[in-house]
């Protein structure tokens, strides 16, 4: 079996594996969501021949002759998380010389043949990435190793150099028929067109969002044995008649000088005659290439922008990260236990009647009740192999839970319930929920890891699968969803690569109707341990569980204050919510008076139980005692804060701020000081509303302030944000190249204002002019998406400083990229 036949067999096996993999992806596990982009590649390197004029006919020969260059280009299309296809055109020069590779006295030395061959190739290749891609191309791996194969159409015509008296010039060898081809009653001349089967390995190294630098080695097994014009036997001088050049090129053993090197050589005593071996046709010729590749991604599918920077405040702060006692496993803390017990009299907890001898966990609010996960004994939904119940979703009404009355939970009916475990679910709106599902014990199902599914609510307890979320992946889990009150921020748990520990909390933003690629929530929240069960409250506070922060043991529940959309500060919720066992999955109602969480603490009914958390009503006139230790309630408190402008995020002095007691209707009004600060006296167990008012600013809806259930604190802090009235200003000017002064036509500019959902897209006209209308009281930035210019943000002057201006000329000078 020659190299070419072996190559066809290997290609068949590779393509069969490709088909099988594709079939598995279609009928089994879903492939990760991948951006199917185009890429253009330019490459250059060397070619290395193996055949009759080399010591070894193996592509893995240790003797490399890299005198021939090789270069070309390719157009690539990514098809899936592992597979790409490419069309490639290239040129490679290969060569061989007995005088340079053979030892004196050997057959090859005496033969003294040489050649060079310029090979033009058109290839169709399939690339298989060893490490899978997922998501947008900008989030691809830093290093991507791969293997490849395909088919190549080659055009070649070997040459040899003549000697005196024939002029020392390169001539094509095929027309000469050096082994007797092309004569009457002989073999026909070999074709200058051939096929090749390439096999290769390579790696791409990410340089920036769109650019890769790669290296690739490829062996090409061809359908011809005449890349070197050598295959069979000598035919003798008489065969060539008067064609002295053909005779000289067919048998070069009589030459006393190696023509390519100019070195003298020993002429053998015995000449080769007709029928003597000249080469071997036992296997075909081939060649290797080593290429360095520059790959540029052409796709217009822009990376999902992390728009959170638009909401950043100008205020500088240092987040409190609680890292001093960080541990991979949260064993009992060395922190003084009084820290965790500081507010234990504020809450009461109780084990719910819905708990069973099995496990109940992951509660979430749903249609006036709770949905939760349980593996309670279920005769309908169980694994027939091990007779164990699947984790399923159940519903229980809140009015029964408040009274802790025995109730009969209702099973949530879904179209895929019988196939999968259900882990958790979060209601987005009246029509849809996001649910976590997985199947750890069923082969050939489409859920191998925890994955998130969008489900349509057909009835109160009937769901239908809609679609997977785009960042599900067969190589890691995505689970435990929680969505912000406005429906635009999704929090979830994953063990994907690049995290801080085992499982981390990730964030995805809804941008133009699509969920962006996940962003790690960062080191304030995530640790070297596991973070699970995020819950984003209506007021923007994030709750989660972790075994990697300073805690009481096992998984503890934490509160994370979000500032300008970013984690700012975390705190352990302490006793009685946390224990030395696993406590997780906390949810709270809108006013934070009632909540539910999961725990496997001692005293439960099963493996994991759901507990109800209640904030105690406090009578401020009495003295609280705890183990004979007096704990006094602070009856008078302070409400402190600042008023800032929404557009500039700067404090506003001399602004009227009114505070109203909602029970007594008592109203107190004060002005902010020169720093924009205010301070009010407030009482315990009271509800207030506060609102600022100022000329030139929109009337703000009152903000609720409550001291119910808060004691042991001396003051509450609140920042009020007010929005200036909208005043339009016409902005116009010319767009030019900053260095050359050249007018830039049809340049797209994107204008951005912090806290604005929509960006403004405009283009300069045929004379480089632009114009748009903007809000005078807002700060604007702009950037340009055009190639060749710096990708940075440019600031528009603060127009609020100009009280009477209605239009303003602002010429834009774009800085070109440095070469």
UniProtKB/TrEMBL annotation:
Q: Which UniProt keywords apply?
A: Signal
Signal sequence span is 1-24
Keyword Cell membrane on this protein? Answer: no
Q: Tell me the segments the record calls region Disordered.
A: 258-286
The record's section on SUPFAM superfamilies has:
Carboxypeptidase regulatory domain-like (SSF49464), DPP6 N-terminal domain-like (SSF82171), OMPA-like (SSF56925)
DUF6089 domain location, by residue? 41-229
**Name of the molecule in the record:** DUF6089 domain-containing protein
């Amino acid at each position: 079996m020659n190299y070419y036949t072996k190559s066809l067999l290997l290609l068949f096996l590779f393509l069969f594996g490709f088909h099988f993999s594709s079939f598995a992806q279609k009928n089994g596990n879903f492939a990760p969501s991948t951006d199917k982009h185009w890429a253009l590649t330019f490459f250059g390197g060397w070619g290395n021949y193996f055949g009759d004029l080399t010591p070894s006919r193996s592509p893995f020969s240790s003797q490399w002759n890299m005198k021939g260059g090789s270069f070309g280009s390719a157009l690539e299309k990514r098809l899936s998380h592992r597979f790409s296809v490419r069309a490639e055109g290239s040129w490679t020069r290969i060569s061989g010389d007995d005088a340079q590779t053979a030892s004196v006295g050997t057959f090859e030395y005496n033969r003294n043949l040489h050649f060079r061959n310029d090979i033009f190739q058109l290839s169709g290749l399939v690339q298989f990435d060893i490490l899978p891609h997922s998501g947008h191309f900008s989030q691809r791996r830093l290093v991507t190793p791969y293997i490849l194969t395909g088919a190549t159409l080659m055009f070649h015509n070997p040459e040899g150099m003549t000697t005196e008296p024939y002029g020392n010039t390169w001539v094509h060898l095929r027309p000469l028929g050096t082994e007797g081809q092309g004569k009457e009653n002989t073999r026909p001349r070999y074709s200058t067109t051939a096929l090749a089967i390439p096999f290769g390995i390579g790696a791409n190294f990410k340089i920036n969002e769109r650019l890769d630098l790669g290296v690739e080695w490829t062996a090409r097994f061809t359908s011809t044995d005449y890349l070197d014009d050598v295959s069979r036997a000598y035919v003798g001088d008489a065969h060539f008649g008067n064609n002295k050049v053909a005779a000289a090129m067919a048998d070069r053993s009589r030459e006393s000088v190696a023509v390519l090197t100019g070195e003298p050589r020993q002429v053998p005593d015995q000449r080769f005659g007709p029928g003597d071996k000249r080469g071997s046709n036992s296997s075909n010729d081939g060649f290797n290439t080593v290429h360095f590749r520059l790959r540029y991604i052409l796709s217009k599918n822009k990376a999902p922008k992390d728009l959170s920077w638009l909401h950043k405040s100008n205020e500088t702060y240092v987040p409190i990260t609680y890292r001093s006692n960080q541990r991979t496993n949260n064993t009992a803390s060395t922190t003084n236990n009084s820290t965790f017990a500081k507010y234990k009299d504020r809450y009461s907890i109780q084990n719910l009647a819905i708990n069973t001898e099995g496990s109940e966990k992951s509660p979430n609010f749903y249609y006036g009740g709770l949905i939760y996960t349980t593996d309670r004994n279920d005769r309908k939904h169980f694994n027939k192999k091990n007779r164990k119940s699947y984790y399923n979703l159940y519903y229980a009404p809140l009015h029964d839970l408040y009274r802790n009355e025995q109730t009969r939970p209702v099973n949530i009916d879904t179209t895929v319930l019988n196939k999968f475990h259900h882990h958790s679910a979060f209601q987005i709106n009246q029509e849809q929920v996001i649910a976590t599902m997985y199947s750890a014990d069923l082969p050939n199902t489409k859920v191998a890891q925890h994955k998130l599914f969008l489900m349509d609510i057909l009835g109160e307890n009937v769901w239908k699968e809609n679609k997977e979320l785009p960042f599900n992946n067969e190589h890691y889990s995505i689970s435990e969803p929680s969505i912000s009150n406005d429906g635009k921020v999704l929090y979830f748990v994953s063990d994907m690569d690049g995290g801080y520990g085992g499982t981390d909390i990730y964030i995805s933003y809804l941008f133009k109707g699509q969920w962006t690629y996940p962003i790690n929530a960062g080191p304030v929240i995530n640790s070297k341990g596991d973070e699970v069960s995020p819950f984003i409250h209506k007021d923007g506070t994030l709750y989660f569980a972790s075994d990697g922060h300073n805690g009481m043991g096992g998984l503890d529940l934490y509160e994370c204050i979000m500032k300008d959309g970013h984690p700012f500060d975390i705190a352990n919720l302490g006793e009685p919510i946390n224990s030395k066992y696993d406590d997780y999955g906390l949810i709270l109602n809108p006013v934070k008076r009632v909540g539910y969480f999961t725990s496997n603490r001692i005293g439960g009914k099963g493996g994991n139980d759901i507990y109800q958390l209640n904030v105690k009503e406090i009578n401020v006139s009495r003295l609280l005692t705890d183990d004979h230790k007096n704990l006094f309630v602070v009856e008078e408190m302070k409400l402190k804060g600042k008023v800032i402008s929404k557009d500039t995020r700067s404090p506003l002095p001399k602004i009227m701020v009114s505070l109203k007691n909602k029970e007594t209707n008592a109203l107190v009004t004060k002005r902010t000081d020169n720093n924009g600060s205010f301070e009010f006296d407030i009482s315990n167990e009271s509800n207030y509303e506060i609102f600022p008012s100022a000329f030139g600013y929109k009337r703000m809806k009152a903000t609720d302030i409550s001291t119910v259930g808060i004691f042991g604190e001396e003051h509450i802090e609140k920042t009020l944000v007010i929005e200036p009235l909208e005043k339009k200003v016409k902005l116009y000017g010319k767009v030019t190249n900053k260095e050359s002064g050249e007018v830039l036509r049809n340049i797209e500019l994107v204008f951005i204002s912090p806290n604005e959902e929509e960006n403004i897209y405009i283009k300069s006209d045929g004379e480089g002019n632009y114009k748009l209308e903007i809000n005078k009281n807002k700060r604007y930035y702009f950037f340009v998406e055009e190639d060749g210019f710096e990708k940075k943000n440019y600031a528009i002057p603060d127009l609020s400083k100009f009280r009477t201006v209605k239009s303003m000329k602002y010429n834009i000078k774009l800085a070109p990229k440095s070469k």
